[in-house]
Amino acid sequence: MDYLHNPFASERHTVFAKKGMVATSQPLASEAGLEILKKGGNAIDAAIATAATLTVVEPTSNGIGGDAFALVWTKGKLHGLNASGPSPQALTVDAVKAKGHEKMPVHGLVPITVPGVPAAWAELSKKFGKLSLLETLQPAIRYAEEGYPLTPILGHYWKKAYDKFKDSFKSAEFDSWFETFAPDGRAPEIGEMWKSPGHAATLRAIGESDARDFYEGEIASKIDAFMEQHGGFLRKADLAAYKPEWVEPVSTKYRGHDVWEIPPNGQGMVALMALNVFDKLDAPQWQSAETLHQQIESMKLAFTDGQAFITESEDMPVSVEHLLSDEYAKVRAATIDVQASDPVPYELPKGGTVYLAAADEEGNMISFIQSNYMGFGSGIVIPGTGIGLQNRGADFSLDSAHPNVLKPGKRTYHTIIPGFLTKDGKAVGPFGVMGGYMQPQGHFQVMTNTLDYLLNPQAALNMPRWQWIGGKKVHVEPGFPSYLVQALQRKGHEIEVMPDGGSFGRGQIIWRNPETGVLAGGTESRTDGAVAVW
């Protein structure tokens, strides 16, 4: 396990600790998790505290009205939680088309699905936590009530969203978004204080009721009333019927390790499929043009098939087992040529998500991710609550022949995915890279950086990234070596160097040394990330 102590790194260095560690994209959120660890909570309590704080201190990427997934390692076993919400019972293909849409809209009332985040917090707390849910939410409540200063990356994306929304969100249902996130008629500036008393009240109600107020009580009634007033589909009955699902994680063997993901409806399968295909190729051991070419082609095949097949498991036309089989990987790997291929193209939308990892000295570890999707989500905020609702329904198809076709009560193809790594039945640790359709590509690159190149957590995150967009089109970061760009272009790839590194995902990693119990963590250099340690 050379990647536990390999000294190579750039910009930042891997952080080490023994008693506890929390890695997130926002320093205040990391410290919130550490605060809960020091109060006697475990890694799961710390993750809940961190996740709740992120809804306050990074609302550009997630919120109370979003979805969540988790992989939890405790007492020698890995548990999976799917807290993605279904479509409302009234949301049908005919109902969407009756509103004049030929495909699912991105913003507004139509793509809103049942939020799973509050239920995820409550379920994790009840099953694995040591503290009460209300105790774990205290740091988030404090930041919402007292306020906090905006960090640089947060401020950048907040202003970017405001500049876009002010020109497109003109109807009354969007008024509360501006009242909540642009209270002075503009986006708050970097370093400026922002607070949300309504958000604090909502968090307190969730904590006091173990989230039932959100699904059955006063908060649910407020959501219902707003939706009815403005012609939305989500209703109190949809909220009351919701319950997260404990699932068996899926995995693939890669370089002597087991890489774990949440099963469909999540897209974690894409990362596993790509690793399987790449594993069948005779790739050089370091990043050469040939290696990158094979990685990109492996990801193309996995994504093309993932988009075609992945949805709720009962609606998938092919089994998970077959997609992860050795036979399938060999067949797909055999199609990879020396030149770039041109699979059936499709447009990849951008994403908005937060990922966090936490670990404690008892051996508990958690990989947790939550999102409103595409930044601020639907753009719909329930007045006075701080609840920004997600737009996960935007990924549904209105084509009756597509596996991911919209149906009432159905969960859509989901982009947010937590990852976990084990070896010989023992936990190595949680990892994740947020960012819409970049996520499985980020998982794939972090795993190859770690297991092929033996890079430590921070170095694995720092490596320049690529992102397949569709067809032969590939985006790379500004720091991507120019000689590799030129070599890939000669292989037929349409390479574009992107000035904005935000679209290449933002990740966190925590590995545990199985012999000493020492934790090694890395955080994303592409954001305001921090690793809080004890």
Question: What's this, in brief?
Answer:
The chain has 534 residues and is an alpha+beta fold. Helix content is 36%, strand content 19%. It has helices spanning 27-38, 43-57, 93-98, 117-128, 133-136, 138-146, 152-168, 175-181, 197-208, 212-216, 218-230, 236-240, 268-279, 289-309, 320-323, 326-333, 439-451, 457-462, 482-490; strands spanning 15-17, 20-24, 67-74, 77-83, 148-149, 193-194, 245-247, 250-254, 257-261, 353-360, 365-371, 381-382, 387-388, 419-423, 426-434, 466-470, 473-476, 494-497, 506-512, 519-523, 530-533.
Topology:
Layout: E1 15-17, E2 20-24, H1 27-38, H2 43-57, E3 67-74, E4 77-83, H3 93-98, H4 117-128, H5 133-136, H6 138-146, E5 148-149, H7 152-168, H8 175-181, E6 193-194, H9 197-208, H10 212-216, H11 218-230, H12 236-240, E7 245-247, E8 250-254, E9 257-261, H13 268-279, H14 289-309, H15 320-323, H16 326-333, E10 353-360, E11 365-371, E12 381-382, E13 387-388, E14 419-423, E15 426-434, H17 439-451, H18 457-462, E16 466-470, E17 473-476, H19 482-490, E18 494-497, E19 506-512, E20 519-523, E21 530-533
Parallel strand pairs: 17-18
Antiparallel strand pairs: 1-20, 2-10, 2-21, 3-4, 3-11, 4-7, 5-6, 8-9, 9-14, 10-11, 12-13, 14-15, 15-19, 16-17, 19-20
